[in-house]
Amino acid sequence: MNALSDEIESVLFISREVMVYQVPPRTxxxxxxxxxxNVESFVWKGRLRVMEVGDRCELRLEDGSTGELFAQVNYxxxxxxxxxxxxxxxxxxLRVEGEGGKRASVGMGFQERGDAFDFNVALQSASKRSNPSxxxxxxxxxxxxxxPPKDYSLKEGQTFTIKIPGREGKRAGxxxxxxxxxxxxxxxxxxxxxxxPPPPPGRRG
Length: 205
Hints:
One of its GO terms (biological process) is endocytosis. The chain is mainly beta.
């Protein structure tokens, strides 16, 4: 039996439509800007659920119709795996980890500012429950993001496969693919569901 199956799961937040983007290398040590992305062309579109599982928090990017897992972030501390961009309140950078410890930074965007606000509230709530002593430090808002020691942005033409431990073989009748993947070539989204570009730098969206 898998011990994880006995853990209680609760939904902290759900957004039925988020977009995932290829993120170019950061141009500033202070953080990312959505204006540097091609926000009119996303690589994936689906549902986001923020789950509390036992004593941890998981961000799950899933197919909105089938529930198939596309990528997952294990959220441990504020603004480490999730980083807000500098020029918009609707866009974030997620740091996902795949098979063999490979890491990648991907962009995520919300259609509505209200969803982005509720997403922040859910993460702060999860952080306070897992680390009550940090509550006073979080009252003034998230700290300024710092540059990671390495640039994990997906390069053009690079393929990144994400496999979540303990989840393989759980879906009956799967028959198709070998596991969720993130393609860094910009395919699969296109301008069909194009987002309006974020406001210019210096003005929050």
